[in-house]
Write a structure and sequence with these properties.
Layout (H helix, E strand, L loop, with lengths): L3 H17 L6 E4 L3 H12 L6 E2 L11 E7 L5 H13 L3 E7 L13 H9 L4 H8 L4 E6 L2 E3 L2 E2 L3 H11 L1 E5 L6 E6 H14 L5 E4 L2 E4 H12 L5 E5 L13 H4 L9 H15 L15 H21 L5 E2 L1 H10 L10 E5 H14 L4 E4 L12 E5 L3 E4 L12 E9 L4 H23 L8 H11 L4 H12 L9 E3 L11 E2 L1 H4 L1 E6 L2 E6 L2 H9 L18 E5 L20
Parallel strand pairs: 1-2, 1-3, 3-4, 4-5, 5-10, 6-9, 8-12, 14-18
Antiparallel strand pairs: 6-7, 9-11, 13-14, 15-16, 16-18, 17-23, 18-19, 19-20, 21-22
Length: 573
């Protein structure tokens, strides 16, 4: 079974290569090293198949590219000759992928890295360079010490063992002066694809991700484990600087860049090793400066208030989207999620909209275009009065910005799928026009010129009139028994329609420590929204909060006498 961290690395690499359009057809790989398997698996994730051969003598078929993976210490000149000859006979481009051993300290590799590196390695690599230099259709890439998944140039297994046995991370002052470079496995894959597509024949490239001291490395590891009670000790005396760095400037000229930053790369790798020893660490960064748990407490308080009102007045509601998925898969919040959503059928929602503003307790307010002239979202929401929350999206608009729960409505739509899709497309066009008018500036991208031309005419109408017009449009089939509904006012892409029976009845369901409801047809909804594999966890690289927040103030939820004051960072003063 493939480790979740390794699966994440392969998925992340494939997404990056797809985005940069680096994939190539007609590739075969020779090599038994794990890097060869990673390259093959990454291509499978991209929807292709790369034949993988253990040695050059096994190669069969016709290919336009041959990637030959070898370890610098153990290469076979005879087998490498065989591989190069085969590629020349087939007129295939040949890429030699050379895995370097740990570079010893005091060997600084700078401008002409391959020349100085061979000097540093002595007789080991000199014959290899000579062998490659005699062929014009050959490229070569040296891969620095690799970390990530099953690669461990930092000896994280030993660090994890020390943490398990002694609950301590030990630093020495000498570590601050020992510098080295290393290559994250996702960057290694990116580098190979980049050189294969853009590298010049006859050239040698170096691939490296990060340059840091041992002290920086160990400090990063400690920060990831500190809240779990791991101790830190420091000893020793300062020493003279030692270096072991590989330059990648030549590779960067081809457009190569790191797939992610060092902290994320190290975190993914550390998870792999720590979990082997049953050591727990945080999989998710708290992107809210330590306020995520309190943010969730406020949201659950609002959810309890919604539940109280709906039970009192016999209004059917249910948690929805990521909140529903979190309840079913995790028993509460998805670990990296930061909000709560609820939904209702239109008939239930209209009753709730009339009752809730009068029934809500003193700490919450009801936000809707029907009672707030500055509010023009396509759904209503419940907001905590003494809080401030501005996301990248909401910060562009003039309105009250507080921690809130969005209330989505399932509206009747045509039974014919094509007619339902046309109905949805019409609503999306209306929403685009409203967003331009509300933001009061032209859109960016392809719609810039059109929105710039339309904006002076759009300003002739008030935002209130646009909101009323949109709600009239979304309720077009309200009094027609079509038998089909969709969350027409949500911000999500089109995912089809649902039989109304999916949501007609609700069943009790626990969300963390809150008693709430989900629809009887919740499985069908989750499959439509999150695929049949909705119970599977996302890759680690995608486990991030949905909202890109700009400012956050929790007001009196931090301390009773706090006042909601804001600086540019939105932190409580």
């Amino acid at each position: 079974m493939i480790d979740s961290v390794i699966k994440n690395e392969i998925t992340m690499s494939a997404e990056y290569i797809r985005r940069k359009e680096l994939n190539q057809d007609g590739v075969c790989i020779v090599g038994s090293h794990p890097v060869a398997r990673y390259l093959s698996k990454t291509t499978e994730s991209l929807g292709g198949i790369i034949p993988l051969f253990s040695s050059a003598t096994d190669v069969q078929g016709n290919f336009s590219h041959l990637w030959y993976v070898l370890e610098a210490e153990n290469y076979s000149a005879k087998e490498l000759d065989t591989a190069i000859e085969w590629s020349e006979q087939k007129q295939a481009a040949f890429l030699c992928i050379i895995l370097l051993p740990n570079i010893k300290h005091n060997h600084t590799i700078q401008k002409y890295a391959e020349m100085e590196l061979f000097t540093a390695m002595g007789d080991l690599l000199t014959p290899l360079r000579k062998q490659l230099s005699g062929h014009q259709n050959v490229r070569a890439i040296f891969l620095d010490r690799i970390f990530g998944g099953e690669f461990d140039c930092f000896d994280l297994a030993a660090i994890s063992r020390e943490v398990q046995e002694n609950n301590v991370i030990h630093l020495t002052q000498a570590m601050a002066n020992r510098y080295a470079s290393a290559l994250y496995i996702c960057d290694a894959i990116d580098a190979v694809f980049t050189v294969s597509k853009y590298g010049k024949a006859g050239n040698v490239y170096n691939a490296s991700s990060f340059y840091l001291s041992e002290y920086q490395l160990m400090s990063e590891i400690y920060l990831m484990l500190a809240r779990h009670g791991v101790r830190l000790t420091v000893s020793g005396e300062p020493t003279e600087p030692e270096y072991g760095a590989l330059s990648n400037g030549k590779l960067r000229s081809l457009g190569y860049e790191n797939v992610c930053d060092f902290s994320d790369a190290l975190r993914y790798t550390l998870l792999h090793h720590l979990e082997r020893f049953s050591i727990q660490t945080d999989r998710i960064h708290d992107g809210y400066s330590g306020k995520l748990n309190t943010l969730r407490v406020i949201e659950k308080d609002m959810l309890r208030e919604i539940d109280r009102i709906c039970r009192k007045h016999d209004i059917k509601y249910f948690i929805s989207y990521g909140t529903m998925l979190g309840a079913v898969r995790h028993g509460g919040f998805i670990p990296w999620d930061d909000d709560v959503d609820v939904a209702m059928l239109r008939s239930e929602f209209e009753r709730f909209r009339q009752i809730a503003p009068k029934e809500l307790n003193e700490y919450f307010s009801y936000e809707s275009h029907t009672n707030n002239n500055g509010y023009h979202y396509f759904f209503d929401r419940i907001t905590a009065k003494d809080t401030y929350f501005a996301s990248k999206y909401s910060d562009d608009y003039e309105m009250h910005k507080g921690i809130s729960i969005d209330i989505f409505v399932l509206d009747n739509v045509p039974a014919d799928p094509k007619a339902a899709y046309r109905f949805w497309k019409g609503l999306m066009r209306r929403r685009m026009i409203m967003n331009v008018r509300w933001k009061n500036t032209a859109r960016k991208g392809k719609a810039y010129l059109l929105s710039k031309l339309l904006l002076p005419f759009l300003r002739l109408r008030s935002m209130d009139s646009y909101s009323r017009s949109y709600e009239k449009a979304v309720r077009k089939y309200e009094h027609k028994d079509t038998g089909w509904v969709m969350p027409a006012s949500s911000d999500h892409k089109y995912r089809g329609t649902f039989p109304v029976e999916t949501f007609n009845e609700v069943i009790p369901y626990r969300f963390d420590d809150v008693d709430t409801f989900i629809p009887v047809g919740y499985k069908d909804f989750l499959k439509a929204w999150y695929t049949d594999n909705y119970m599977d966890m996302l890759p680690l690289s995608q486990q991030n909060p949905f909202h890109d927040y700009y400012r956050l103030d929790l007001g009196t939820h931090i301390q009773d006498d706090a006042e909601p004051q804001f600086d540019y960072m939105g932190e409580l003063l």
